[in-house]
Amino acid sequence: xxxxxxxxxxxxxxxxxxxxxxxxxxxxxxxxxxxxxxxxxxxxxxxxxxxxxxxxxxxxxxxxxxxxxxxxxxxxxxxxxxxxxxxxxxxxxxxxxxxxxxxxxxxxxxxxxxxxxxxxxxxxxxxxxxxxxxxxxxxxxxxxxxxxxxxxxxxxxxxxxxxxxxxxxxxxxxxxxxxxxxxxxxxxxxxxxxx
Length: 195
Ligand SMILES: [Zn+2]
Hints:
Blueprint: H1 45-58, E1 81-93, E2 96-108, H2 109-115, H3 117-125, H4 132-147, H5 151-168, E3 172-176, H6 179-184
Parallel strand pairs: 2-3
Antiparallel strand pairs: 1-2
Helix pairs in contact: 2-4, 3-4, 4-5
The structure holds zinc ion.
Residues 63, 65-66, 68, 107-108, 110-111 line the site of zinc ion.
């Protein structure tokens, strides 16, 4: 007779106990390792503004995670439109890797802060008026809701991404920003490892 195993009971979200990496369907974390760099750093501020404007136009000013329409009169600070860069981290040789810019999405500032949760937490720690623990808790709640996850799966995912960030922080990264040319026709030089 089959006996229900409480450790493998119904979880409500298919891959909670699978062995593969957890992939966020809507709002992923983007935890930049120590040697990583912002893709926009290879552009002048004027060129970056051109890119950000096009990203906003393409998305019709809607957050590409939560769908809120931004920039209308009376919209809240958490609904400011922000261009969010996504990367692939390719380990090319022992100790070295290529940080490849692969996407730029339009996010509301709330979802942007959640995706860079580590940075949001660091900033909160230096702000005497904020409560870093409460901010982390709010970020996790938002991540769970946006991705349709339980808190358990959300925490597993957070740990997975922190571990990857830690491993990546021991490497030197060179940025490949060809995406600016391929996607927007804007030439940008790739830059070497910075630490
Ligand atoms: Zn949003």
